[in-house]
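Re: that backbone. Tokens:
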């Protein structure tokens, strides 16, 4: 798995988004290659994740905020293929 920044990134396979924890940021990382597009992440945090209808892979579509942090953490912990992770 490769960790790459989201801003200005056009690489395939992995993307990240800042996640606020107290006053420091952590990142949600998606390793899209093993993603099966089950939609668990989108169901738990639809303002942040979606399954792309063309690639059938999870992608980040919104910002992680203090208000949706718990939903995003649930999505990371519930990912069927464990393609979502937290990077500090």
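Recovered sequence:
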């Amino acid at each position: 798995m490769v960790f790459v920044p989201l801003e200005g990134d056009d690489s395939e396979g992995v993307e990240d988004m800042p996640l606020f924890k107290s006053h420091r940021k952590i990142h949600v990382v998606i390793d899209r290659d093993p993603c099966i597009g089950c939609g668990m992440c989108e169901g738990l945090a639809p303002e942040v994740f979606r399954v792309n209808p063309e690639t059938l892979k999870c992608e980040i579509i919104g910002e992680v905020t203090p208000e949706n942090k718990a939903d995003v953490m649930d999505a990371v912990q519930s990912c069927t293929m464990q393609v979502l992770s937290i990077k500090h």
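Strands lie at 14-21, 24-31, 49-51, 58-60, 84-87. The helical segments are 40-44, 69-78.
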